Amino acid sequence: MKLITKTQLEKLISNHRAQDGTKTFKAEVKLFNPTGIGTWYLSELDPETNTAFGLCCLHEKELGYVSLDELTTYRGQMNLPIERDLWFKPTSLEECEKLS
Fold this sequence. Notes:
This protein is α+β, with helices and mostly antiparallel strands. 26% of the residues lie in helices and 28% in strands.
């Protein structure tokens, strides 16, 4: 399974290009570690650096940047990769914070 669909990728890049500094776009993608901590609600993607912005929930919840290259190559327990929540619908980052 692809980590991010083509449609999601296009929306994340579009959000990045339209960014005005307010960081108010909805999370378009939810990624998670199926065997440990780590959930990422992503709202933007810089296509030049492959760095995404969103709510990162590890030991703490914080807005920040994460490398999609690192998430794609990461393997957790039992060698399982990061997965995409197939049923996630675009949601505001504030609402995502309440979900985690």
